[in-house]
Amino acid sequence: MTNIQQKIEKERDAAREACSTNASSAECAAAWDAVEELQAEASHQRQQEPEKSELDKFCDANPDADECRIYED
Question: Would you kindly state where each structural domain of the chain is located, as residue ranges?
């Protein structure tokens, strides 16, 4: 499990604990806000890491291959 996923699980457990006695308290709301912020950050990180194409993967492994040459105009 990644570091951010571990933080999400930890904050989720804390939110459940905070809401176990009074689900309408400010502490409960703040705890779930923290969970939502971490989930948004995890989503943002996934979007920033585009999937490499098969050609990109091949060129990473074989940079001298003819298919991987870059020509300047």
Answer: 3-68
Q: What would the pLDDT profile of 12-24 be if each residue is shown by its tens digit?
A: 999 999 899 888 8
Q: What is the pLDDT of residues 22-38, one digit of tens each?
A: 888 899 999 999 999 99
CA distance 7 to 52: 27
Name the residue among 38, 16, 43 with its Cα closest to residue 28: 16
| CA distance linking residue 44 with residue 48, whole number of Å | 6
Instruction: Give dist(CA 46, CA 64) in Å, integer.
Output: 30
Among left, alpha and beta (phi > 0; psi -120 to 50; other), residue 2 is beta
| pTM: predicted TM-score of the whole model, two decimal places | 0.60
Amino acid type, 71: Y
